[in-house]
Predict the 3D structure of the following.
Amino acid sequence: MKIMKKILFGAILLLAGIKLTYAQSDVADMLRFGRHDANLLIKSYIEPYAKGLGVGMNNSWYFTAETHKLWGFDLAFSVSAFQVPGKDKTFDVNELGLENLYAKDEHIASTAAGSTDGVTLYFDVKDPNTGNVIRSVPYFSTPGGSEWDLVPVPIIQASFGLLPNTDIIGRYIPKVKFDIDNERANVGMWGIGMKHNISKSLPFIKHLPIDVSIFAAYSQIDGESTVHFDYESYGLQNPVGYTPDENQKGDLVSKNFKYGLIVSKKIAVITFFASVTGNNSKTSFDILGRFPMPDPDQLDMNGSNLEDLITSAMSDVEDPISLNYKETYVGVDAGFRLKLAFFSLFGSVAKTDYVSYNAGLSFGFR
C-alpha cells in the first residue's frame, strides 16, 4: 500500500476496509506542476470518495420512528455502502482551469472511483523572448481509477430512552492507531443524535396507527497519517545537506449534519419505515508540512529532458494541498426492521446524489 493511500484515503479506507494501491510516483507527479494545478487535479481525483464519506456517515442513524421506553436501549452494528454514479467516475482535465498543463486528444480522466486509465498532460516549453511554443513536453499521466465504486462505511452506535418519547443516539470510536507501509496513522469518529416521537403528543396524529418522529444528528471523523516525501519521491537525488521535514502529514476531517422526519408502521414482528431529510456535509483534506515542489514559472527552458526541467525549479513549499468539499442535499430513504427475540435485523436504501445501501443488526430492549 503506497503513499497515495496513506495521505489521501487513510481514514476513509480504514472505515471502509478497502485495499487500494497507488504508486508513490502518482503523488510525486501530482505535485510536479505547482500548488495551483496540484490542488485542482487532486480535488477532482478524490472527490467521489470525499462526497461519499459524508453520505455514508449520514446514514444508519435509525431503522424505525418508534422510540424506546424510559431507560430502554439498543446497540446497533451496520454498514452503509454508497454507490458512486457514473458521472463522478471521470472528469475533464481541460475544464479545471489548470495554469501550466493541458491534455491533447484524450482529456477525460478517471477519478479514484473510476475504472479507466489516466490521461497524459503536457507542458509547453516557450521561447523566453518571443513567447512562441518551442516544444510540447509530455509532463505526466494522471493516475487511473481503483474500480471501487461501491464503498462500505461501517457504523457502531447506541440508542437510549433517556427522556419521554425521546431517544439519544451516540456513536464513538476512539482514535485507532495503525501502520500503513511503515507510516503511522490514526482515525477516530464520534456522533450524537436525537429522535423524538411527535405522534405520541400531537392531537391530530396521536390516534393514527403509525409512529412519526423528528430527528437530528451530527457526526465527525478525524484522521491523519505521517508522510515521508523528498526529492527521491521524484526519482531525483536529495541535494547535499538537504533534510526532509519530519512533520509532513496528511490530515482528513469530515463533519456531517442530518435532520428530518421519519414515519414507520409496525406489522407483527416487522416494521417498515421511510424518511425525508436535509443533509449537510463538509470534508477537508490537507497535506501539511514542508514539501519539495518545482515552480513551473522557474523552469529552465533549455533543459533537454523532464528531469532537467524539474531539477532547475525545485524549492520547498509549506502545506501544499488544502481541499474542501461541501454538500447540501435532500435525501429520502426507506427500509424495514425485523424483530427476532432479543435482536433485530434491518436494512434500507437511501437516495441523494449517491444511492446508498444500509444493513445491520441491533441488540437491546424497548
Remarks:
- The chain has a mean pLDDT of 83.
- The CA atoms of residues 126 and 133 lie 4 Å apart.
- The helical segments are 3-16, 24-30, 35-57, 306-312.
- The radius of gyration is 25 Å.
